[in-house]
Design brief:
Strand order of the largest sheet: 6-7-8-1-9-17-10
Distance between the termini: 48 Å
Shape: globular
Number of strands: 21
Radius of gyration: 23 Å
Largest sheet: 7 strands, mixed
C-alpha cells in the first residue's frame, strides 16, 4: 500500500446531517505559541457524567453486541502501518496515544497516556501517567514511547514516518519523561500525535510478533480492550483489558463492560431488524434511509459523530486527468445538491472546500469554487486537448456509494463524458491508485479531524504519497504541477500559531484543489451509530468511530 495515513469513508453508507453551521465563520483572534509552563490545549469539554440516581452505572459487566456489514471488517490492525478507516474502531479501543483528542477537537490530558507542555515553540515535554500498563503487563513509560517512535521511523511502508521526520530529536529524560524537539513550528503536532497510527504499543509485543502477526491484532496496546477473536465474515471480539490504567470519577475501574462483539451481518435490513428486536445493542453505519427509522423508533436513538468529505480522486499521472480543462469540466458538470438529496436522502451538505466544516475556524463556506453549470462544463470540455473523453471510476459496492457513482455517470454523460463504473471495495481502491496507478479514479472520501492540517497534508500534499517500499514520490507527472503550489500553502499553514493566518493559507490551498479539480469535492457527511436506549455514554472519536471504554449498560 502506498497512501500514507489513508483514512477512507468505506462504503459511505451511514451518514446524517452534519451538525455545524455552514456560514463562513470568522477566524478567531490569533494565538501565540504556548508559554513554557502552559498546557498545549484548553481543557476538554466532556459529556456530563451519569447522575447519582443512575445506579446501574456502578454495575460493571455485560456484553455489547454491535452489527455491521462486510465492508467494515478489519483488514489491517498494526497501527504503525495503518491505512483504511474500517480499522479505526478496533484500533481506538485496543490502543492509547500520548495525546487524546475528543470529538469536539480538544486535547484531554486525563484521557491521554501523557501530560504535556511546550517548553518553547520547538520543545515539547511529555510526562507519562504513573502506573499505566499495556495489556501484556509491560509498563507504558518513556522507553516505550522511544521504542515506538524508533519503530515508526523505520517500518515500511510507514504512514506516520513524516511525524518522526519532523522531529530534530526525541529523548528519554527520565523513566517517565520524553522530550521532543521540533525542526520547525508545527501548529498541528498534537493532532498528529493523537492519530491512531501513532498508538503507543508494548515494546515486548513489537519484538515478539512479526508485522504480519501485528496486522492480525496480536500486538499489546494500552487501550480499554484486548482483541481476542477474529473470524472473517463472522465476528470480532474485544474483551476487557484487565490492566487498563483509567478509572472513573468514583474510582471504579474502566471499562465497565466485559466484552464487545462485532458481528458481520451482510444485509442492512437484517442489521436494522436485529437492533429493533434487541439482538444487537449497536448498529454501525446505518443506511441513510434507516437513520430516520431509528430516530423515530421507541427504545432506539442515534449517536452522531464528526463526518467526512465525500468526493472522488483522479489519477493525475495519466490522461484524461492530466488535462486541466477536462478536470474543470468534471467539476462544473455535477449537481452536488441533487446527490445529497437523492443518494443521501438529504443527510449530507453540498461541498465547497477540502477544508471540512467541523474544523470551524478554518472552514470558509463562501469560497469561489465550481458549482453546477452544464453549459460551463461543456465549454471547458471543448477547450480541452483530450481526444478520448472517457474514463472509469472504481466504486465501493455499498448501496449509497453505488448510487452516487450512478449519478456522477449521468451528469457526465449529459456533457459528453463517458464514465464507466467498476465495483471495487474502497480499501482496495486506495492501493490500486497510489501503489500501482492501475485505475483512473475512485469514489471515496476521508474522515474529519478538528485540526484541518493533518487531513490537508495526508490527502492533498505530495508528502502524502509513498511507493510500496515506503519511499516518497517526487511528483506526479502533471503539466500543472498542482502539488508544488498546494504543498506550499499547506506547509506554511503549519508554521504559525496564528489561527487567522493558518485559515487563510489552508483556504488558498482549498481554492486550488477545487478550481483545478485536483480532488472532486462533492459534500460532507457525519457518521451515525444506531443504539438501543440501554447503551449509555457511548462516545465517538474524531474519526467518527465508537469508543467503548466509558460506556455502560443500563439493565433496569
Amino acid at each position: 500500500m502506498s497512501r500514507r495515513n489513508w483514512v477512507l469513508i468505506a462504503g459511505l453508507a451511514g451518514v446524517a446531517l452534519i451538525a455545524v453551521a455552514c456560514g463562513g465563520a470568522a477566524a478567531p483572534t490569533a494565538t501565540k505559541a504556548p508559554a513554557a509552563t502552559a498546557t498545549t490545549a484548553p481543557a476538554a469539554t466532556r459529556p456530563p457524567a451519569a447522575t447519582p440516581t443512575q445506579a446501574p452505572r456502578a454495575k460493571a459487566g455485560g456484553t455489547v453486541t454491535a452489527v455491521h456489514g462486510t465492508a467494515a471488517q478489519p483488514d489491517q490492525l498494526y497501527p504503525h502501518i495503518y491505512y483504511p478507516t474500517n480499522n479505526d474502531v478496533f484500533l481506538e479501543n485496543v490502543h492509547s496515544y500520548l495525546v487524546y483528542q475528543g470529538v469536539d477537537g480538544t486535547y484531554d490530558p486525563s484521557l491521554s497516556l501523557a501530560e504535556w507542555k511546550f517548553l518553547d515553540d520547538l520543545t515539547i515535554q511529555f510526562r507519562l501517567k504513573p502506573g499505566a500498563l499495556f495489556s501484556d503487563g509491560e509498563k507504558a513509560d518513556a522507553n516505550a514511547v522511544k521504542v515506538n517512535f524508533d519503530r515508526i521511523a523505520v517500518v515500511k511502508p510507514s504512514p506516520r514516518k513524516y511525524v518522526i521526520d519532523s522531529f530534530t530529536s526525541y529523548a528519554v529524560m527520565d523513566a517517565m519523561t520524553v522530550q521532543v524537539k521540533l525542526k520547525a513550528v508545527q501548529a498541528g503536532i498534537l493532532g498528529e500525535l493523537a492519530h491512531p497510527g501513532m498508538a503507543i504499543m508494548s515494546p515486548a509485543s513489537l519484538t515478539k510478533f512479526t508485522n504480519d502477526e501485528l496486522n492480525q491484532g496480536k500486538g499489546a496496546g494500552a487501550g480499554a480492550f484486548v482483541l481476542t477473536l477474529q473470524l472473517p465474515d463472522d465476528r470480532v471480539e474485544l474483551e476487557r483489558n484487565r490492566n487498563y490504567w483509567r478509572k472513573d470519577a468514583q474510582g471504579a475501574q474502566l471499562p465497565y463492560v466485559d466484552k464487545v462483539v462485532f458481528r458481520v451481518v451482510p444485509e442492512a435490513t437484517v442489521r436494522l431488524g436485529m437492533l429493533k428486536a434487541g439482538q444487537a445493542d449497536v448498529l454501525r453505519d446505518p443506511l441513510p434511509k434507516d437513520v430516520e427509522t431509528i430516530q423515530n423508533e421507541a427504545g432506539l436513538r442515534t449517536v452522531r459523530g464528526p463526518g467526512g468529505i465525500i468526493g472522488a480522486y483522479w489519477n493525475l499521472s495519466r490522461p484524461p486527468f492530466t488535462d486541466l480543462k477536462f478536470r474543470q469540466a468534471l467539476a462544473w458538470a455535477i449537481d452536488r445538491e441533487a446527490i445529497c438529496k437523492i443518494a443521501y436522502l438529504g443527510n449530507c451538505i453540498p461541498g465547497v472546500s477540502a477544508v471540512l466544516p467541523n474544523t470551524g475556524w478554518a472552514f470558509d463556506a463562501k469560497l469561489d469554487v465550481p458549482k453546477y453549470d452544464p453549459t460551463k462544463a461543456k465549454a471547458f470540455l471543448a477547450q480541452s486537448a483530450i481526444t478520448s473523453k472517457a474514463f472509469s471510476m472504481n466504486c465501493d459496492p455499498a448501496p449509497t456509494a453505488t448510487k452516487v457513482c450512478e449519478m456522477l455517470q449521468s451528469f457526465y454523460d449529459n456533457v459528453g463524458i463517458k464514465m464507466t463504473i467498476k465495483p471495487e471495495r474502497t480499501a482496495s481502491n486506495s492501493e490500486l491508485m497510489w501503489a500501482t496507478k492501475k485505475i483512473d479514479s475512485f469514489f471515496a472520501g476521508y474522515s474529519a479531524t478538528p485540526d484541518p492540517y493533518s487531513k490537508m497534508y495526508t490527502a492533498h500534499h505530495l508528502g502524502g504519497y509513498y511507493t510500496p517500499e515506503g519511499d516518497k514520490l517526487e511528483e506526479f507527472d502533471t503539466p500543472e504541477k498542482l502539488y508544488a503550489r498546494v504543498n506550499k500553502y499547506i506547509d506554511d499553514s503549519n508554521l504559525t500559531y496564528d489561527l487567522k493566518e493558518r485559515a487563510r493559507l489552508m483556504n488558498e490551498a482549498a481554492k486550488i484543489i477545487a478550481n483545478e479539480n485536483q480532488f472532486l469535492v462533492i459534500g460532507y457527511s457525519v457518521f451515525n451509530v444506531g443504539v438501543r436506549d440501554r447503551v449509555k455514554d457511548l462516545r465517538l472519536g474524531p474519526l467518527g468511530k465508537e469508543r467503548y471504554g466509558d460506556m455502560w449498560l443500563d439493565t433496569r
